[in-house]
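Inputs:
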Amino acid sequence: MTDKLISKIPDGPLESKWARRKSEVHLVSPNNKRKLEIIVVGTGLGGASAAASLGELGYNVKIFCISDSPRRAHSIAAQGGINAAKNYQNDNDSVYRLFYDTIKGGDYRSREANVYRLAEVSGAIIDQCVAQGIPFAREYGGYLANRSFGGVQVSRTFYARGQTGQQLLLGAYAALNRQIAAGTVQSYPRYEMMDLVLVNGQAKGIIARNLVTGQLERFGAHAVIIATGGYGNTYFLSTNAMNSNGSAALQCYKKGAFFANPCFAQIHPTCIPVHGDQQCKLTLMSESLRNDGRIWVPKKKEDVEKLRRHEIKASQIPEEDRDYYLERRYPAFGNLVPRDVASRAAKERCDAGFGVNETGKAVYLDFADAIKRLGHQRVAERYGNLFEMYEKITASSPWEEPMMIYPAIHYTMGGIWVDYDLQTTVPGLYAIGEANFSDHGGNRLGASALMQGLADGYFIIPVTIGDYLSKKFAEPKTDTALPEFIEAEKAVQARIDRLLGIKGKQTVDYFHKELGHIMWEYVGMAREAKGLKKAIEEIEALKARFYQDVCVPGSQFEFNQELEKALRLEDFFEIGELMARDALERNESCGGHFRIESQTEEGEAKRDDEHYMYVAAWEYKGPDKAPEMHKEALKYEFIKVATRNYKD
Amino acid sequence: MEFNLKIWRQKNAKAKGHFETYHIAGIEEDASFLEMLDILNEQLIREGADPVAVERGCQSSGPVSFDHDCREGICGACSLYIDGRAHGPDDHVTTCQLFMRHFKDGATITVEPWRSAAFPVIKDLVVDRRAFDKILQAGGFISVRTGSAQDANNILIPHDKAEESMDAAACVGCGACVATCKNGSAMLFVAARVSSLALLPQGRPEAKQRAKAMVAKMDELGFGNCTNTRACELECPKGITVAHIARLNREFLKAKFSD
């Protein structure tokens, strides 16, 4: 363990750690809050809720987003729901169980204290959201309704049809709008953070590009919060929105923030399969569908052949010839096993030749039984909009034939390393939501991303950032004419000039697709040392070609989407390499990270607690040097570490 | 499939715009409309990078700019006026969920940006919709402090009321209603927010103030009046109905009478 990785976990029993930290944190008086400035980058659940809450407390907040409105942030696309330990169902749920399920679901690679706090504040999130007017699903008596998600045996997921992320984001966006109107928050839509500025080793501002005029602008503050989401788009094809990117996180890494567990990426089992090479985006079908949908492939190869030739339909295959492989392999959890387990099981069946479409990369998700059991109307209430969306995309109706699904990259558990206060290794720099690494270990459970984003933004950062800022109110406003700002701006300008000056023949997307192929092939669902080394070499070679042959049309000082993409791709190259490096170093199978070298005889993932029970935190060492890995040992004081078992 | 695309090109807000026509071939019928534009852009960039093609006078305007993000019909970023209809010929979808199988092979397709005084063009097909944010900033919220909420189940909301509120809350803020309306009115957008909150007990205390403030802001920002043509309802990708406009009017009148 290095002295840079001080996790600042409070002493004492698990249940009182957060209370203890809150009582220790220094306060900032209202008149001093007015003197302090905070920059928030990103307007998803984490960023919007943080900016709104901090503005309300009296700080001066500036919030930046790359879209035309904060409401476009990708949190909006989360479908299924948000977890909270309310125990409204009387099914013996509790803070402890939500904590336990999250630690176990993450395959024992997250911090006990952080996860417990997340479970602890989960109930208050639902209270807050209802008060904001979020129309969660209700039972006929007017009480809140719940459903189940993967990896758990209780119903603790709150939802608003298949649009939960949208509703929660609109709630946080409304809270943000209220603060913008009150003048405590200034909003900068269509601005992209290009670099982090450090003064005396502390985060003091950012360089941002105005995406409409193309100008670089400097912004100073007393602290900076990164809430820019994950880096799943490294793979080109993912369920992330087209503009989601890892650039802000990578720029922070290059300025000294450690990057933790980059190889932990989540592959979601229920996405619409790839249809051809003209595709640029994969569409997720909510995990909530696994509450009532049954996943299967045919037992007989001849049925598979007929399906691929369109000679028969799925519904014509008799019950006894179907292999409900999740129910067969994991009887206790059945179709509701965690995402990593469900994804690998689908890959296993498809690799064995049972994939049901022409490409051999699809399995069925079938609602026939649910429609029989619940009736058309109740199924429509639960999943109507998802069925409609599926039909719009595929031109096939889930009411008649089962959906076809296949795993795709969805979420990244890895991210910027943070301590218990959500502060990175750079003083004054914080990371929240998907952008940090802290709560989901090797695999995130469904309906927990929304919970984390809002927990961090509404309830954690507003408390913990005060501890840092309580020592800063005497400092004057950051002067953006300081040499550090000038240098940072020059470096960004040089990057832009270089890209525009290449004038090659290939498009940015061409290179991004190539990167995606390398990542999916070698750093995808099954990884091994040989392939990972190859990935690092191939990314290096691709990068060299990119700098020789990319064509970025247009100029800097205009609205230029190709330039935006090129700048982000430069960062994806580096993230991809870092992911491969981390995956190579972690020679165990754990959560979403499956090493071919580390599996049981039945092909289940084999974790290696003796050698790998740590957080891998990578330190940037310079452009031509290998990064250095630091280890934060994970200690489990309160729960017994066990092999994940979803069988019985 | 192949198509002739007649696309609006405009360098920036101040420049004069014009249509340019492009031919595109080899499009799969399962490709989405935006994927087709991606492919066109790849083609335009390659041609622009090819000195021979440039010499022949090939496309000099470069790739076409358009707003897009989630490509799942939920973020509301995409905003194209296709063959005279907001979000194109299919019903109840955003442009990103429009698929080429809805077009005839060989067709000429006209693509324009939203056209409304309140949404100035930034470039090509990209418009500035910050006016929508400003309307919501005027009152599209419930004033609740972080941390001061009571237990969620203390507020009972009948199932059907919650569902109706959700119908209105499904608005993605794309602006199709404004682009479609001959008056350039934002009534459906404003109504969706006002109605969604007014239907819930939590939203009642500020209901009157909210309706008044949002309508006033809408007028101030240059959106037109509602003359009940109901065109907005037809083109709303989320199927939001004008019944919500009726509720907005009731809330607005109540507010006026109590002044």
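The longest strand of chain A covers residues 403-412. Flag for discussion at group meeting.
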